[in-house]
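Supplementary Methods S3. Input chains for the assembly prediction are listed below.
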Amino acid sequence: MTDSPPDGDAVDDAADAVEAELEESGFAAELAALVAAPLWVDEFDTIRLYVARENWVDALRLARDEAGLTFFAWLSAVDWSTEVAVGEEVAEPDELIDRYEVVCRLSSVTSPRGAHFFTEVPKDDPVIDSVVSLFGGAEWHEREAAEMFGITFVGHPYPLKLYLPDSFQGFPLRKSYPLLSREVKPWPGTVDVESMPEAGGPSTANVEAGDTGGDE
Amino acid sequence: MTDVDARAAMHLSDASVSVELETQGMTLNIGPQHPSTHGVLRLVAKVEGERVTSVQPVIGYMHRGYEKLSEVRTYAQITALVNRIDWVSGFANEIPWIRAVEKLMEIEVPERAQWIRLILSEMTRISSHLLFMSSYPLELGAATPLMYALREREYVMDLIESVTGGRFHPNFNRVGGVKPVAGGGSTQKKVSQDLPAGFFQGTREAMDRVDSVMDELDELVTGNEMIRARTIGVGVIPPEKAIEFGLSGPNARASGVDFDLRRDGEPYLPYDQVDFDVITEQTGDSFARYLVRKEEIRQAVRIVRQAIDTIKPGPLQAKVPRVLKVPKGQAYVRTENPKGEMGFYLISEGGRIPYRVKIRSASFCNLSILPWVLEGALVPDLVAIMGSLDFVLGDVDR
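Predicted structure tokens for the full assembly:
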């Protein structure tokens, strides 16, 4: 359990692809071949396929029409960033390429199959084609990703903000965006979050092994 | 089906009346504070006479930014947040979250803890659906079922409270198991006190009550001429549209999508050890969505009865480190919540705080079909269709 699982987010790490291929996962390999995904990972019952940005709409269309992944589950994005205003930083910042990843999950309604399609969106050109023409349900998801990450979805029929007020400035889910409440007042749970004593100390004296300390 | 055709023909005749009169189009603002919106949802509807030509829902009044807040909290603290996403089924929200963490940490949860999770999840389903059974007829103008359904729902809520300490926000799951009763002893001993005294007896009684109130509601609502006239053939969602918009749970099953994560998804909780039917309807109208939820209550009662007969004594909590550090990795876990598929995409970078949490909530997707399904509906049907989708704004806005 102390072994960390295979690193899956370094897109150019070919060793991972080989390792993933060795795992028993016929569906993921077939799907990767179908949508021309150069890299795919299948771990923790979660299939991740990395497709090229130009190939984004075609890959999702193929997955829907040819692989039976007809159910549009969700679409969102991830900000891989070395500039973190608040929260957890990446494990290996030196190896990180600053980028956004747009994620779309499609699944089947006749089997437990499902897959997450990732595509890399550079930070200096955060633009990607909209998939609303494929899945009507993508409209709200893309509006949310657009306002939260500042990614432009080309061809979106109604590109307005979804949750946030129209006048809102900034993109809250970017890692560089500070959390205002933490700026004005230190987090009262700092003791627990930042520096839990390794042994002894009054706060853990009566905590049994196995208690996650959530009883505050 | 003939019923449906008859209703459709009736609506067509209404429509031709308004077209002939050439009423001027107008914009109708509904909400954000309107009783039928279950929270704060605003609809900007363009209407021509009695017919809605287009609807643009305006959401975000309840947006609390849980995805951002999750990036500054430890794994145990986030359990308290996810309770509040869909607040009428707080316990069920915890399951996909806590399982996502357990998946990355590769923790095997003791059997008893899994059964307790299953029992409380199904009780949550009963309470969520009973709320629908009370509010939906009310929106259609029938006030009596509210009293019946809410009364029995309170017995179920009492049971959840007796175990977890909270009616709405249990915060009961721990990574690797569930919380023991205060002063109940070690969580890893063979027998430790978890369920309160008299829980099984109380559950049996409550389940009998729910069963009998369902019979009463059947008589009051299901056969009610007025309810049928207002819901049959209204707001029809074909299965292709349901799939395209990501509708899940009872809303999808009412459209004939025979898919239930408890039976068809990745195995979770001991659902494979209990007998239950997945309820589907073929018509996809508001009445079908009502019927599916009604029968799901009975199925949930069935599951709870079997579960309390099956559950055995045992440890409550797997061994987990005192300071939770989740190994680097990415996992998606989804479960069948009362409202539909709820899932968490968790990205950990190996620390005590997640790097990114994507929350897939059922009501968000279920509501996103609203512009499509309301287009061309009659203004009086607007509330009937909206109510039948059974959304909770906390689940929409997150």
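The first strand of chain B starts at residue 25 and ends at 30. Chain B has one domain: 2-397.
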